[in-house]
# Entry
Amino acid sequence: MNDDRIDRRTLVRRLAAAGALGGLTAAVGNRPTRAAESQPTWQPVSDHRVRVGIVGYGYCKFGAAFGFQDHPNVEIVAVSDLFPDRCHGLMEACRCAKAYPSLEKLVEDDAIEAVFVATDAPSHARHAIDVLRHGKHVASAVPATFGSIEDAERLVEAVEETGLKYMMFETSCLRADCHAMRTAYRAGGFGKLLFSEGEYHHYHASKEPTPSYNGWRRGLPPMWYPTHATAYYAGVTGGRLTSVSCIGTPGHLPYHQVDTNPYQNPFATETALFETSEGASSRMSVSWSMKSIYGESGRVFGQTGCMNGTEYRGLAKNLPDLARPPLPPGVPEGGHGGSHGPLMHEFITAILEDRRPLVDVYEALAMTVPGIVAHQSALRDGQRLPVPQFDRG
# Structure
């Protein structure tokens, strides 16, 4: 006998296909999901086009991955990569006719107002400082500084002395879940945050790591690349990780051995327990050898609410819309959970509105520096260490 009953999910799909869901708004936890025709649309804040230079295509083609070339308020003036074939690929991907052989040459171009630094991680701080010293705003791939607190100090100095915009493109900050958590936190949805946790588990099964300029990924200390995890505290609350005890675990692949990598790093997994500026705790984990269900993710737990993903569970009523704001037409959300386009758009909008970007230099270092100290703790068998703070004067 045929069963003519259908489940709710099937019914909703059929109604949607028939156009019968025009005014329907579904409730998910305490967060309303916007109906298609009630979604806000992007509104331009200026007709100015920011003149941008992009440096670094690399193995991952990262320089073109954030959609600068598709933004209506952007003109890509020039690009650069040290390798001619990659430079040509970046020119094609960005639809740009002008190129320079190096960042050092590109920053001398007076027509450029802002530069996206997508170079090798060990060069991020040095390159960002060079861009700033040449009078241009700068966006940087993560991390802000590579294992060096002294470089963090120099980066803050350059930002403060030039007064220009600096933004770190931390992808977790504009994933849908982290954006929702930050919005709920700012609206009082959690009260005091008692516990948070974040992971960046990038499993490698091969005998060699992802190719990188001068092999910088080979044996990389996990907590030198912490921001995909630490964003799930600092990027949610604007608070600080103030002290840390970290445990390191050796890896199983050849380049995880202390005598086979340039950092003399013995660990492929590092798990840190931080104290927060709220007097609570935060667990962050970064691993190159852990097969994990998490990847890049995090959770937050407060006195009056908690979140794991985009759904709020708690006592707060009438929270604002937790969804990310719209992008300009034609700008793709891109990779890393649809965070690429929103990050680029935030940087450009901050320039147009002359305001600080979401992940400015202080927030960037609040996500980066705790990892540097966490690795030091792991090398000292988990000794609890204070984390230097970089805040606005």
Observations:
- The first strand starts at residue 26 and ends at 28.
- Residues 14 and 20 are 9 Å apart (CA to CA).
